[in-house]
Write a structure and sequence with these properties.
The protein is mainly alpha-helical. The protein is built from 21 helices and 5 strands. Keywords: Membrane, Transmembrane, Transmembrane helix.
Length: 544
């Protein structure tokens, strides 16, 4: 980022206003202290930015609830988080019985305890969602919480954009661009896909990364570093993002020795934390070492993989670019922002996450329909804003070699960036209604109406009493029973639960097809289970 952008520390040049003189230069200053009502009225953009944040939360939350109501969300991963965070809410370890039973291969032999998600991923920040269960005991509370976290990131994206553009253009242009970028971010396809996929820790990453980048730009390094350290509590691989942020501090043009030392320490802390969590923390909670290692084609561990990438870049490039889904997802991340994020140093924050997925052998890491892309939403959006500002700076230097412009350069810059942000918004809107992007469905009433399957499924879950003990349920139906009783995933292995709910209308994980589920139903009948409900290929069995 330019030095002018980094030095902006306030949003007003005169008391009672929030716009500097129309010179395109950043103005340093702070709003004077006022009684709360007057201060609220004085900040005229508070309501506008709040409206965009609320729109983001409402749309993303509506999408999550719609997908839940239509039985599009599975036990993996919504029931896992629901069971774990509900245990947090009751003061227990974040145990997920479903995870413990169905991912037994992940647990160290002889562990001796029910497996908790603290051994699955290092996400203690999820405990912050526990109080929500004191208000509403339903998995849908997590979907709403994630949507609110997405919405809460909007003000930081808006402030970052306005401050960046004010470095080259009049404030009236900066404000317009900030609103267009904020709306584009709020409806961006990575957030859509995360909302469709259910609840994950990504919501906390989106909010913390947004505050971190905006505060870094504003020069408030203490807050930025605090948010960076907070990312360590989101997921174990976030340590590498923290390390990248440390490198960003080290390589800044500002020759501040303290900043460079801080950056070096942060980079070291990020790497050490990531390695220590994977090597010691997760196994301490029962995780089998190397369970999530998807990089055997590069080597058996991280050092060997890094050396393979460095020593044989041609082979590494071949791994990172095949199958074509990897390149397709990368292009989908870049082209809605018109590739401008590639012009900003902020993109270095995205590099660890992109490399982690590109070299992975897990297909879910490559696709566009997963929540992993939302980890990059804030980083790429803010990098694109910084990139287009840098691009204008390059154009302006070239213009200086020619005859003076017929109009002030600041206004030309404003129109330049405004045109870019308008194009980005058009791309984002087109993606909303582009199949298979799901957000557009919340605007159509037909997508909310119950069909024959959802009616039958609703009736089926009402057959299972709250004191059922435990129930084996189809992957798509399990989340609707999770708040009432102990839920296990229906698979080919009998678990001995007195209630079983299955459906043969669609293919459901982990079954390969309806015929397999029918065979499972026949086994239930042969083992003494009684069919107590049958409608539209949804069945409920009970063992007296």
């Amino acid at each position: 980022m330019t030095e002018a952008n980094l030095k902006v520390d306030g949003e007003a040049s005169h008391p009672g206003t929030d716009a500097p003189a129309e010179t395109g230069e950043a103005v340093v200053g702070r709003l004077p202290r006022r009684p709360w009502p007057r201060a609220l009225r004085g900040r005229r953009h508070l309501w506008g930015v709040g409206a965009v944040a609320l729109m983001t939360a409402v749309l993303q939350g509506a999408l999550g609830i719609q997908q839940f109501k239509q039985y599009y969300m599975g036990a993996y991963d919504l029931v896992i988080f629901d069971q774990a965070i509900r245990n947090y809410a009751h003061g227990h370890m974040p145990v997920s019985v479903l995870k413990d039973v169905h991912d037994a291969a992940q647990v160290i032999p002889g562990y001796g305890h029910t497996f908790s998600i603290l051994g699955d991923h290092f996400s203690p920040i999820l405990a912050l969602a526990a109080p929500l269960y004191w208000i509403w005991n339903s998995p849908m509370v997590l979907l709403i919480a994630q949507a609110l976290l997405f919405g809460a990131a909007v003000p930081s994206v808006w402030a970052f954009t306005r401050r960046a553009v004010r470095g080259i253009a009049p404030d009236r242009y900066a404000v317009r661009v900030a609103y267009l970028v904020a709306v584009s971010f709020g409806i961006s396809w990575p957030l859509q896909m995360a909302s469709q996929a259910g609840f994950h820790e990504v919501g906390f990453f989106v909010l913390l990364s947004a505050i971190m980048i905006e505060r870094y730009q504003a020069g408030h390094l203490r807050v930025a570093i605090a948010c960076a350290l907070g990312l360590l509590l989101v997921k174990e691989d976030c340590g590498y993002v923290v390390a990248a942020f440390g490198l960003l501090l080290m390589c800044n043009r500002d020759r501040d020795r303290r900043r460079r030392v801080t950056g070096a320490v942060l980079a070291l802390v990020g790497v050490v934390a990531a390695v220590a969590i994977e090597r010691w923390w997760l196994p301490a909670f029962g995780a089998r070492p190397g369970y999530y290692w998807y990089y055997d084609q590069l080597g058996p561990n991280l050092p060997s993989a890094v050396w393979k990438i460095i020593s044989d870049p041609v082979y590494a490039f071949d791994i990172a670019s095949r199958p074509a889904d990897k390149v397709h997802t990368l292009l989908f991340l870049l082209w809605p922002l018109l590739f401008c994020c590639l012009l900003s140093p902020l993109s270095v924050l995205a590099l660890p996450l992109l490399l982690e997925r590109a070299f992975s052998s897990k297909p879910e890491h490559w696709r566009t329909d997963q929540h992993y892309n939302a980890f990059l939403a804030v980083i790429l959006t803010t990098a694109a804003v910084d990139g287009v500002v840098r691009l204008w700076a390059l154009v302006a230097r070239l213009r200086e070699r020619r005859a003076p412009a017929a109009e002030p350069a600041a206004r030309t810059a404003g129109r330049w960036v405004l045109g870019w942000s308008g194009a980005v918004l058009v791309c984002a809107v087109l993606m909303v209604f582009q199949s298979p992007m799901p957000l557009g469905s919340v605007l159509f009433p037909n997508a909310w109406r119950a069909n024959a399957f959802t009616v039958a499924a609703n009736r089926a879950i009402n057959q299972v009493p709250s004191d059922a003990g435990c129930v084996e349920a189809d992957n798509d139906i399990a989340p609707h029973l999770s708040s009432r009783t102990e839920v296990l995933l229906l698979d080919a292995v009998p678990r001995g639960c007195p209630w079983v709910v299955l459906q043969t209308a669609t293919v459901s994980y982990p079954f390969s097809g309806p015929a397999v589920e029918l065979a499972r139903a026949h086994w239930l009948e042969a083992d003494g289970y009684q069919l107590v409900f049958s409608s539209n290929q949804v069945f409920v069995y009970h063992h007296p």
